[in-house]
Amino acid sequence: MRLLKTPLCAALLLLSPLALADVEYHTPNPDRPFSEAVRVDDMLYLSGQIGFDEATGALAEGGIVGETKKTMENIKATLDKYGSSLSQVVKCTVYLADIAEWGAMNEVYVTFFPVNPPARSALGSSGLALGARTEIECMATVGED
């Protein structure tokens, strides 16, 4: 695009908010094609988590209830690892392999946000990684509550 070659456009690109943002990519497993979390200034964006239990090498037992509990525990651990917490989550997106399981997922989910629940979207999908029943991604602020 010719417009991008002008000095004014180059200067505007350098002054864009993203160019000025402090960005950190947290990729503890370089064999995976995504970052576990990305911090942009005071916001932390988590990749989707499933109810995978590292200790057993399998999804948590108990169907949607067990998987949702383990998913939220995994999210809590990731938030803690990068300087945030569940109380700083501002938005979650919940993916369900079967939207009919929304009620059972929700019963567990709400226990992790007893006050100031974050904004949330929930939707059904045609399949999730490793045959999971749910995957949840979150955005949170970083720093002191």
Indicate the topology:
Blueprint lengths: L6 H8 L2 H4 L2 E4 L10 E4 L2 E4 L2 E2 L1 E2 L4 E2 L3 H19 L7 E8 L5 H8 L9 E6 L9 E8 L4
Short note summarizing the structure:
The chain has 145 residues and is an alpha+beta fold. It has helices at residues 7-14, 17-20, 63-81, 102-109; strands at residues 23-26, 37-40, 43-46, 49-50, 52-53, 58-59, 89-96, 119-124, 134-141. The N and C termini lie far apart (44 Å).
CATH architecture: 2-Layer Sandwich
Proportion of beta-strand residues: 25-35%
Largest sheet features:
7 strands, mixed
Taken from the alpha-carbon principal axes, the silhouette is globular
CATH class: Alpha Beta
* Mean pLDDT across all amino acids: 89
Residues in helix, %: 25-40%
How far apart lie the N and C ends?
Answer: 44 Å
H and E string: HHEEEEEEHEHEE
Unreliable spans are: none
Secondary-structure-based class equals alpha+beta
Radius of gyration: 18 Å
Fold-level CATH name: 60s Ribosomal Protein L30, Chain: A
Total beta-strand segments: 9
The CATH superfamily label reads RutC-like
Number of domains: 1
Tally of DSSP helical segments:
4
Describe the structure.
With 145 residues, this protein is α+β, with helices and mostly antiparallel strands. The chain has one domain: RutC-like (60s Ribosomal Protein L30, Chain: A, 2-Layer Sandwich). The protein has four helices and nine strands, in the order ααββββββαβαββ. The protein has helices at residues 7-14, 17-20, 63-81, 102-109, and strands at 23-26, 37-40, 43-46, 49-50, 52-53, 58-59, 89-96, 119-124, 134-141. Strands 1, 2, 3, 4, 7, 8 and 9 form a seven-stranded mixed sheet that branches. The chain has a two-stranded antiparallel ribbon with strand order 5-6. Helix 3 packs across helix 4. The longest helix is centred in the middle third of the chain and has 19 residues, at 63-81. It is globular, with a radius of gyration of 18 Å. The chain starts with 6 loop residues before the first helix and ends with a strand.
